[in-house]
Amino acid sequence: MALRLRLTAGRQWRAADVPPVIRHWRLAVVTAYTASGVAFSSWVTRLPAMREDLGLSPGGVGLLLLCMTLASFVSVSASGLIVIRLGSARTIRAGAALLGVGLVLMGTGASLFRSPLVTAIGFAVIGLGTASWNTASNVEGAALERALGRFIMPALHGSFSIGTVAGAALGAWAAAAALPLAWHLGVAGTVVAAAVVGTAAFLRADTHSAGVPVGAGDEGAAHDAVRPGGRAQVAAAWRDRRTVLLGLMVLGLALAEGAAGDWVAIALADGYGVSHTTGAIGYTVFVTAMAAGRFLGTPVLNRHGRVTSLRACGAFAILGLGLFVFAPSLWLAFAGLALWGIGASLGFPVGMSAAADDPVHAAARVSVVSTIGYGAFLCGPPLLGFVAELTGVRYSLLVVLAFVAGSVALAAQAAPRSVAEIRA
């Protein structure tokens, strides 16, 4: 069926027939995505407290985020070569360890030392770890999807969303209890790093394990980026028109996700005059809606296809953003957050799957789409911080709405293609 995802694995495993090695692999990948979400929302929900501890303006918060942006830019720009050199499993381990250290520095810098410099170093260390970790996770996810022979990328990204829900709920509790940032972020960083490093041994994209059906024939390599010529594949992927356009499509919808993470709590506090706890709850509403959209995304994609699903998501995101910015009451703003979350749910996972349509070049193309898409997380937040200095945080989000409209215009690039069409 043309609307269905075209995977080229040699076999589609039924749930009862999946070998233990693949079940363990999936558990490790899910852990990597979930832990990343927990770490992200742990510090996002405490941004208002961090701003107060350090006495920062919105522009000052934007400068802190810029430290993460610059470090992440360095990391994500090199992520393809890093995964080639270290392999995705070791990249994920190293990234998790760096993120744990960064959270500890961030928390102690804000609440113990009251030092913007130490806090900024924490942001930078998190940026260095997170960008390459997430690219490697998408490489693992694409390889696992081909191994299983069915569309699971939305559910994997849904695991990230579940992690953000859990982290946001804990963040809301920590904010309500006025828990010092050093304790909250220190514990979160330690738990996240330990969980990811402990399960990374089960990651399989770097190996040619017997009995793991990662493809067929020449397309059966578990991780094409580690084969000879991997560097050339990454370079070729950057020259591939469809891959770059997919990345730009993902960028707009990823900005809708990243802007919520960085600014919703502050926008609610400043724009609607609510407490820090209510701001954290608002972000929890957003990530809960996004998680629901991702777990329901598989049947929607199978029924309506990538392009229609992405356009519908874009419409939801535009409606939700407009409602959140212009809502005359708090409950309408929360309704806008729910629509916004659903609208942001499928952009990144669908982009990753579309990039992996050709298994031979999947890892290189996934890394390119990831790199472009993560540009939204890297450059968007500080840009919005500077715009917020002129318009206020709430109205600065109209910039995001414009980017989402651009993604809707590029949605046709995600249409499933045969291997012959992609290589033509």
Automatic annotation (TrEMBL):
Membrane topology: Multi-pass membrane protein
Coiled coil (UniProt feature): none
Superkingdom of this protein's organism: Bacteria
Name of the molecule in the record: MFS transporter
SUPFAM superfamilies: MFS general substrate transporter (SSF103473)
PANTHER family the record matches: BYPASS OF STOP CODON PROTEIN 6 (PTHR23514), INNER MEMBRANE PROTEIN YBJJ (PTHR23514:SF13)
CDD domains assigned to the protein according to its UniProt record, in alphabetical order: MFS_MosC_like
Cross-referenced Gene3D superfamilies: MFS general substrate transporter like domains (1.20.1250.20)
Main location: membrane
Membrane-spanning segments: 21-43, 63-84, 96-113, 119-139, 151-175, 181-203, 244-268, 280-297, 309-331, 337-356, 368-388, 394-415
Location in the cell: Membrane
Record InterPro entries: MFS, MFS_trans_sf, MFS_Transporter
Assigned keywords, A-Z: Membrane, Transmembrane, Transmembrane helix
